[in-house]
């Protein structure tokens, strides 16, 4: 893209960020709504995990094709499509009938979650790709802009967890979903009206085969991303929320409401902390004074540091009679530490994928990379229910530690572009 063809950087960045924030607020709220609502209906950990499986599968498929779709039809088209599909998913979820059999309810919610997974990854790929094209080239500008976008959206998603729990307690499941659909529709219309011109409109000659990268760095970074996000979701999706529910609720309606609020608050604080550290990652890593090669070199070390946390928590969970008060305190502190270190790893990955790709391939490589991200989340989601049901919290956290170690091994294969 020439300097003349470059879009209005800051105004376009603000519009893209606002759209992404709106989406992630609804995404966080919807996840907490679904998890807590169906847990109170008696769903097992494995059944709860199944509710999110199609969400992650749809994310993988969407990311594989979204890069090509954006290259073919333009970034704004995929961004608006993501927001629009999320509105339709919320409207569909509002039609859920409590009288349906459990099997029918699971299948229906899985399909709706699948649509939401498509929506999320259309919005994510569009937003992250736009940053590559909009960010200033000098002074670690790319790392700063992607860190702010990624960090702020995770803080917003954390607020969404709290919002989802609060809406469930205050309005009930159907009322909460209707409110979210109405607000997101209004935001979609506002963003469409405010978006400045200049983002790429697509090229007719884009081929689907271009999605697969021949860059070793893109492929190894994608592998590292699979295991990093699998390590998070293996405890985040089912294990920890259900453990906290067992600790906090006495089974009464009032006890359930209090547990919803406290669980939602913890998940919100975790995501907000994660987002804040992500936004600060360029300063933590001293990115302004380091070149790309130096940042590549620290990726493996940060993953190894992260590995220690779930490993230690797994030992604590194995030693404790569950649920135990001291274990809950250790888990809260340990998982907050995990979130901070995980955030540095995640932010560094998000910068590196944009550093490794070229402007003309940005949607393809970013789509492929986030397909790997969704694959890791899928693996983590399935293992979250299976490991918690099979071996409790100790097994869940032990698997998380192994997955972080595998992420570190993959990150160790990255090389500076000039050396490739």
UniProtKB/TrEMBL annotation:
Spans through the membrane: 12-36, 48-70, 77-94, 100-119, 154-173, 179-199, 220-246, 258-281, 293-320, 326-354, 366-386, 392-412
UniProt cross-references to InterPro entries, sorted A to Z: MFS_ArsJ, MFS_trans_sf
Gene3D superfamilies: MFS general substrate transporter like domains
Domain of life where this protein originates: Bacteria
Keywords from the named record: Membrane, Transmembrane, Transmembrane helix
Protein's UniProt name: Major Facilitator Superfamily protein
Organism: Roseovarius pacificus
């Amino acid at each position: 893209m020439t300097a003349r063809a470059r879009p209005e950087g800051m105004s376009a960045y603000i519009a893209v960020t606002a759209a992404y924030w709106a989406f992630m607020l609804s995404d966080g709220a919807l996840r907490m709504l679904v998890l807590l609502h169906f847990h109170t209906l008696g769903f097992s950990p494995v059944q709860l995990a199944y509710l999110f499986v199609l969400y992650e599968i749809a994310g993988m498929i969407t990311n594989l094709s979204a890069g090509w779709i954006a290259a073919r039809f333009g970034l704004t088209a995929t961004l608006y499509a993501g927001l629009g599909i999320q509105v339709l998913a919320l409207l569909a979820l509002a039609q859920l009938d409590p009288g349906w059999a459990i099997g029918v309810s699971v299948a229906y919610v899985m399909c709706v979650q699948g649509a939401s997974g498509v929506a999320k990854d259309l919005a994510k790929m569009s937003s992250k790709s736009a940053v590559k094209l909009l960010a200033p080239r000098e002074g670690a500008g790319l790392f700063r802009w992607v860190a702010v976008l990624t960090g702020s959206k995770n803080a917003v998603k954390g607020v969404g967890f709290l919002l989802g729990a609060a809406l469930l307690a205050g309005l009930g499941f159907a009322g909460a979903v209707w409110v979210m659909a109405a607000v997101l529709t209004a935001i979609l219309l506002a963003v469409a009206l405010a978006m400045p011109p200049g983002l790429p409109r697509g090229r007719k000659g884009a081929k689907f085969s271009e999605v697969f990268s021949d860059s070793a760095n893109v492929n190894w970074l994608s592998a590292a991303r699979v295991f990093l996000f699998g390590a998070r979701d293996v405890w985040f999706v089912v294990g920890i929320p259900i453990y906290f529910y067992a600790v906090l609720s006495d089974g009464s309606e009032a006890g359930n409401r209090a547990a919803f609020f406290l669980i939602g608050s913890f998940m919100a604080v975790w995501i907000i902390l994660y987002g804040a550290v992500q936004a600060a990652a360029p300063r933590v890593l001293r990115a302004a004074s380091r070149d790309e090669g130096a940042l590549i070199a620290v990726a493996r070390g940060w993953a190894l540091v992260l590995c220690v946390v779930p490993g230690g928590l797994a030992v604590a969970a194995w030693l404790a009679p569950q649920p135990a008060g001291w274990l809950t305190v250790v888990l809260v502190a340990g998982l907050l530490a995990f979130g901070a270190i995980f955030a540095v790893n995640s932010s560094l990955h998000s910068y590196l994928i944009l550093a490794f790709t070229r402007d003309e391939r940005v949607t393809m490589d970013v789509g492929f990379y986030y397909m790997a991200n969704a694959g890791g989340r899928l693996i983590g989601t399935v293992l979250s229910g299976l490991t918690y049901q099979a071996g409790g919290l100790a097994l869940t956290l032990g698997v998380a530690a192994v997955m972080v170690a595998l992420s570190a091994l993959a990150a160790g294969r990255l090389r500076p572009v000039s050396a490739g």
